[in-house]
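Co-fold these.
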Amino acid sequence: MFERFTKDARAVVLGAVDHAERLHAETVEEQHVLLALLDREASRASFALMSLGLAERKESVEQALAEARRRGGLSRADTDALSGLGIDVSEIVSRVEEAHGEGALRSGRTGAGRGRGWWSGLVGGHRPFAQGAKDLLTESLRMALAQRDRYIGDEHLLLALAARPGVPAEVLADHGVTYASLRRVLYGGGEAKAG
Amino acid sequence: MTEATDLAERAGDRDPRIGLRAVSALRRLLEQLEAVQVRSARNQGWSWQEIAAELGVSRQAVHKKYGRQ
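Predicted complex below.
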């Protein structure tokens, strides 16, 4: 499958591995893919992000992702749902950090998927992809197929990120980047539906 | 106005999606908290057996989950 990845898409996957290493994450996660997408220049994804005004707000996205990491990877929708139960996540985070140091909740286990898959030929190395990140790569293939593209580009990775619920999509949406807005800048009308 | 808001809130409470998401989020939070506490206990020299006893699980279970760290 990875032979269908464009040079830019491969660079994003490799970049995600680098970000995971830099952040001392046990696994490569979707947030690392987003960070790698922000690094791209002159690619289809970077064009789309630039059109939506994200180029100047890169730091703000990085900050929002860092905040989510500090909350143990919980999205705002997660923390809202928990506050409905009377659980104050920020309170828990600050108590845990008081006792165990800043960022203590950050480096928990995130459920690596088992075994090696087609993506391992793409990246090599020994840091496994978290299940969510594997699903993201599969979703990017679906995005390409839905668009009848014969390749998987970094724009398909970006579309897949925006389409899947979770922290990256939430952070992107907070910065005006949604699945719909991406389709609009990438494909114009956006009448084609992704499966 | 307030009556309508209250009603909307109460209806929201019964929305299974919110409830299920809360459970799922709580489970992830629990996993993170467990990892923090196990790491801390290990750093303080606790044995796997002692940690397992406090968590109410088998020694094998806790070692399998965290042993390689």
